[in-house]
Amino acid sequence: MMAHNARGQVSEARSRLLETATRLFYTEGIHSVGIDRIVAEAKVTRATLYRHFPGKDDLVVAYLQAVHQAERDQVGKVLGSGRTGADILRAIARSIADGIQSAGFRGCAFLNAVAEYPDPEHPVHKAVLAHREWFLRTITDVLAQVGETPPELAGRHFVMLRDGAMAEGCLSDPLEVCDTFLQGVDGILQHRIESGAKTA
């Protein structure tokens, strides 16, 4: 839930807190960054932070929801571009590869977060699962437009390739990782196109 000022605008202090937390949580990890550090770098008081986020967990969930919304917006633009299903999937894969090759890349924000919050009942863990369910559903829906066979296995295959590329992108040459990932996506598409041709 967003806090708005008298003019209906999102509070500047809340935005600053969320931007600061996003930067620190992503680059340094969630548990290693304390509330005092966030308050100091966002240049707000502890009272201001607790007015917008009752506790650190609320701030972490808001951080993940902001990352989720940014990804939804990015994918939404591709989905609305009028391209074929195969080209939509390639464009989504390309944007993932671009992220892996960007400066300051530290892996997947959601996989990083769930590693720190393993309890399935924790709100942070649930926020990660909600994002991943949306992503898998979106990819599966796109793959349903390519070929004739059920798309569920191909959707899971794409997500596993993506997860591996996000993890490996921090450990080895991002260019090679992305090349392998994009070739894998092409392989998924080719398999679906060929399977569709055999059943036609």
From TrEMBL:
Keywords: DNA-binding
Pfam families (alphabetical): TetR_N
HTH tetR-type domain location: 11-71
Cross-referenced InterPro entries: Homeodomain-like_sf, HTH-type_TetR-like_transc_reg, HTH_TetR, Tet_transcr_reg_TetR-rel_C_sf
DNA-binding region coordinates: 34-53
Organism (species): Actinoallomurus bryophytorum
Name of the protein: TetR family transcriptional regulator
PROSITE patterns: HTH_TETR_2
Molecular function in Gene Ontology: DNA-binding transcription factor activity; transcription cis-regulatory region binding
Domain of life where this protein originates: Bacteria
